[in-house]
Amino acid sequence: MNLGLKDKSVVVLASSKGLGFATALAYAQEGAKVMLASRSESELARAAEDIFKKTGQKASYRVCDVTSRDQLAELFKAAASENGAVDVLINNTGGPKAGGFEDQSDEDWEQAFELNLLSFIRAIREVLPGMKEKGSGRIINIASSSIKEPVEGLILSNTFRTGVVGMAKSLSKEYSKDGILINTVGPGRIATERVDHLDRLRGEKTGKSSEEVKAQYEELIPAGR
């Protein structure tokens, strides 16, 4: 099935591994011009090589800490220069520090805000002018199932992922007239390094192995996996 993505300029944040990489790979398989971004150059190079081997498409990449306004600006400048004005933005980041309310300091809250909400705001700000000029654009925010139901022990994620939804709904009404569609995805448990990390933390608190924690969650999933 042709999704009409050939030669579209796509930026995927936090795309050297996990959901970000899988998303970038899917776009490359459709012939899109993909720009990868993460904090690790070695992981980006490995991801780009993997995409080329699987699709024959060359993916560009730039090292970018999404909490840095300057680095984000440079990333989108490079994407426009190499692949043309951005058609699709995939907002994505790693998760913030786990823990309950009393585990978090002011600094933890500030860091989570910059990582999981302000970075999305800044990235959207970068692509809006070009999308408005084209009269089209797609912005997809990768959040969490916590946007529907809070996840125990993830107060920071629960707070700021929900903030992403409020922002996206507001912007979708504001910019739909310009042909720009903005949506938020709330994935549940997917086998990524982040989920493995959370399982280990939960295991440490409950005296169980991460494998036991994983098995407990799998029992709650109809497919059992």
Description:
- This protein has 225 residues and is α/β, with parallel strands linked by helices.
- It has two domains: 9-188, 3-Layer(aba) Sandwich (Rossmann fold), CATH 3.40.50.720; 189-225, no CATH class.
- The protein is built from seven helices and six strands.
- The chain has helices at residues 18-29, 41-55, 69-83, 106-134, 155-175, 193-206, 210-220, and strands at 9-12, 33-38, 60-63, 88-91, 137-142, 180-185.
- The relative contact order is 0.12.
In short:
The chain is α/β, with parallel strands linked by helices. It contains seven helices and six strands, in the order E-H-E-H-E-H-E-H-E-H-E-H-H.
Features:
single chain, 225 residues, globular, Rossmann fold, alpha/beta, 6 strands, 2 domains
Count of discrete structural domains? 2
Helix content: 40-55%
Described by the principal axes of the CA atoms, the overall outline is: globular
**Structural class from helices and strands?**
alpha/beta
Number of strands: 6
Mean pLDDT: 92
CATH class division of the largest domain: Alpha Beta
Strand order of the largest sheet: 3-2-1-4-5-6
For this structure, what is the CATH homologous superfamily of the largest domain?
NAD(P)-binding Rossmann-like Domain
Q: How much of the polypeptide forms β-strand, as a percent range?
A: 5-15%
Distance between the termini: 28 Å
Gyration radius over CA:
18 Å
H and E order: EHEHEHEHEHEHH
Count of helical stretches = 7
Parts with pLDDT < 50 across at least 5 consecutive residues? none
Level-2 CATH architecture of the largest domain: 3-Layer(aba) Sandwich
What composes the largest sheet?
6 strands, parallel
